[in-house]
């Protein structure tokens, strides 16, 4: 993973973006699953997995429609940032949607961080219960008890006890915070909206867009991929330049257009804050 200073010397910031997609068109029935923990207690999970009412996932639709590049500052800002007018952001969308499955996420995350030129990563997922956009400050190690879209439980529920010190997250903290300055980024993100869109309807909607900082990424695949990236960087002793963006579950054309614009402005906000070379927060 490169430093922003190295890429900025080339007038470029590189961001990698991933988006979840459902990969399935059916619902699973309720599962009664039993497993034994180290205290010899039986735990019964009576949960219903992720429901897929529509095969289209806005997280992936937004990701795949992002521009390949954009200027670090909007056109109207460049007069105040003359030294940055040539700076660009290269947006690399992960070439395929991320399946809402624990094993798939665990296999993918290490590969995301192999490219030393990536300056930061944004994971995108849907928050079913939210009608606003939110960036997550932290991710949690435990609590992934809901089966994924393949009907599989998170392997960590048993592996942490079976593997002991060889468990992938052994000695990792219960929660990990991003090194991105979330509050400052969110403030700059809010200031950047609305922006002019081709669609008048989308522009009117964007005028009232709600973007926030969230302290709870849930305990499903969104939190799982976020913690996986944060833990990967922690173990590698690299800056934790990754955030998770939750988007509303809206799949109409105008909402996807808005989502693309909101995400692009978030990318700009992070890149602008990082190029200021502010010290990282203590986690």
From TrEMBL:
Its EC number is 3.4.19.3. It catalyses: Release of an N-terminal pyroglutamyl group from a polypeptide, the second amino acid generally not being Pro. The keyword Hydrolase applies. The active site is at residue 222. InterPro entries: Peptidase_C15-like, Peptidase_C15-like_sf, PGPEP1_Cys_AS. One of its GO terms (molecular function) is pyroglutamyl-peptidase activity. Keywords: Hydrolase, Protease, Thiol protease. GO terms for biological process: proteolysis. It comes from the Eukaryota. It holds the Pfam family Peptidase_C15. Belongs to the peptidase C15 family. This is Pyroglutamyl-peptidase I. It comes from Blumeria graminis f. sp. hordei (strain DH14).
